[in-house]
Amino acid sequence: MSRRTVLVTGGAGFIGSNIVARLSEGGLYDVAVCDRLRQADLGKWRNIAKHPITDFVEPEGLFGWLEDHEGDIETVVHMGAISSTTEPDADAIVQNNFVLSRDIWRWCAEHRRRLIYASSAATYGDGDHGFSDQDDAETLARLRPLNAYGWSKWLFDIYAMRERERGHGPPQVVGLKFFNIYGPNEGAKGAMQSVAAQKWPQASKGEPVTLFKSHKDGVADGGQLRDFVYVRDAAEVVAWLLENPQVQGVYNLGSGQARSFADLASALFRAAGHEPNIAYAPMPESIRDKYQYFTQADMSRLVEAGYDKPFTSLEDGIGDYVARYLSQADPYR
Fold first, then answer.
1. Helix axes 261-271, 195-203, angle to 10 degrees
2. Contact, 169 vs 109, CB < 8 A?
């Protein structure tokens, strides 16, 4: 191939734009983006405005573009999806998150191009089966996602891994089970922004930040645990995968360290120069029975595959996010 072109679907979104930023460094890749920018005043276009992308593709024209540029493409990094866990249209979810992913997989298989795609920790459901990223199709099939979003991601994981077991597919297929990612370029996610982004307006002023009370014996209010991972670490893993085409399978992508929502809120306050000021409200009864009190990525398989870079601590990640983005009047400058 004359160039190392990487197409990032969902490349103007939250995780995708951070991947575009990372891959644009150093001139190793030509980076093309497939996405919808929608309203200019919402600023999604600004997520990629500082990066020298080589092309922009509307989703409706994706497969025509792939055929026209087949000779240049090395890898498709497929981050495009309906990512809302509360999306009511299950037909739209399965078309976007499973059918489209399957069709991209088929194109990459036919043309012998590599595929890295976004799975999700939502595939683990309530966590009763643990958070081990063993990726044989039989083990994956035991998981029970709690919502249509998690189900759609689970469905494609099983499809991709079953085909791998049959000896079919692209030369490299890697799915990444993202845990609770936070960081720059979340604005267009609206209500699906991380807790860090949602609570920053209050924490920045030293005003009370409200978290859910605990309704589980032995867990303190605000003591519900999540694996929070800085989005720059996620982009670093993708860059590493591009340089290691021998790595195959589905992998967790978290920090490997569960931390409480109270820890997260405290880090926000301290990054803003305030002492923590946390209030607690009852959890809505409609979600109490389904609420996860613990998630933590088992990162051992990615380490065994050769990834040896440290993950950013919660305090350092929140500190960087606040200093360089959340506290800035215009973080895009």
1. 50
2. yes
CA distances from 203 to 129, 265, 268, 270, 282 (A): 36, 8, 6, 9, 20
Average confidence (pLDDT) per 10 residues, the chain, 333 residues: 82 96 91 90 84 95 96 96 84 95 98 97 91 93 93 97 96 98 90 93 97 95 97 98 97 97 98 97 89 93 97 98 92 72
Domain assignments of the chain as residue spans, ordered by start: 5-182+227-256+294-312
The CATH architecture annotation of domain 5-182+227-256+294-312 reads 3-Layer(aba) Sandwich (3.40)
pTM for the model = 0.95
Q: Which of 29, 149, 251, 321 is catalytic?
A: 149
Q: Catalytic pick from 159, 189, 291, 332? A: 189
* Dihedral sign (CA 189, 258, 246, 135): negative
Does residue 298 contact residue 121 with C-beta atoms inside 8 Å? no
Alpha carbons 265 and 276: distance in angstroms, whole number: 7
**Cα 70 from Cα 268, distance rounded (Å):** 45
- Say whether 189 is catalytic: yes
Contact 226, 179 (CB under 8 A): yes
State the pLDDT at residue 291: 85
